[in-house]
Amino acid sequence: MSDAPLPRPDLPSDPPGPDRGTAAVVPAAGRGVRLGPGTPKALRALNGTPMLIHAVNAMAGSRSVSLVVVVAPADDVARVTSLINEYAPPAGTEVVVVPGGETRQESVRRGIDVLPDTVSTVLVHDAARPLVPVETVDAVIEAVRGGAPAVVPAVPLADTVKQVEPQPDGRPEPVVATPERARLRAVQTPQGFDRALLARAHATVTGDVTDDASMVEQLGVRVVVVPGHEEAFKVTRPLDLVLAEAVLARRRANHGF
Ligand code: CTP
Ligand code: MG
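That is the input. Now the predicted structure with cytidine-5'-triphosphate docked in place:
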């Protein structure tokens, strides 16, 4: 008789289920200067539905996410709250709205500040990435639950990237270096974190940052990358609105919605 452990019966893999422990903070308080003047970016419509609603539904579409904290432009909290009510989120997901700050970092911090104690995993997701597929959201959550304290979705770059020495007055910029493209990734959201780690990063790291993971990196904690998705691109400039509406049209043609 061997005393090797008996093989375990094949259990169905545990799908991410409803869990009070996972929340998403959705910073939506930016003006959208690069998109041009007008309504704040997150309130601009894509195929008739505000970008922010697409982003909230993308988070709520994960069975693991039970709470979404929308960080609205400070002057538009009432308007955002009524939009959320109008486009009622899926059953099983609570949505709360809080006012944002002057910087993305400040807006995210205000969202983190209202999370209930029961939340142990936090996603931070730009309202400006309205079309992220649920598979990407779930992959980030799974990696955090699997023990990674900080997880970012990312994709390889199409363009070669040059580091330059910026010059005044539009003069030609000298190239300083060309990083090896195969080792570079363009980083998306949702970024997923152990809640205590993210709170510590926001409480201690200062200075200009463009994502939450870089704050965690500054604490000396290892961040890991999981595959992102081409549809998780950020709506930044006017052409991105055209692309986003084309993606929605393709989804409707393929899936009937
Ligand atoms: N954001 C925020 N609070 C701010 C600035 C940005 O919540 N004070 C949010 C934006 O609403 C967006 C996300 O952070 O969902 C990513 O920022 P970005 O794409 O730069 O959006 P904007 O800052 O609105 O755009 P721009 O930089 O062109 O003004
Ligand atoms: Mg910005």
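The two ends are 59 Å apart (CA to CA).
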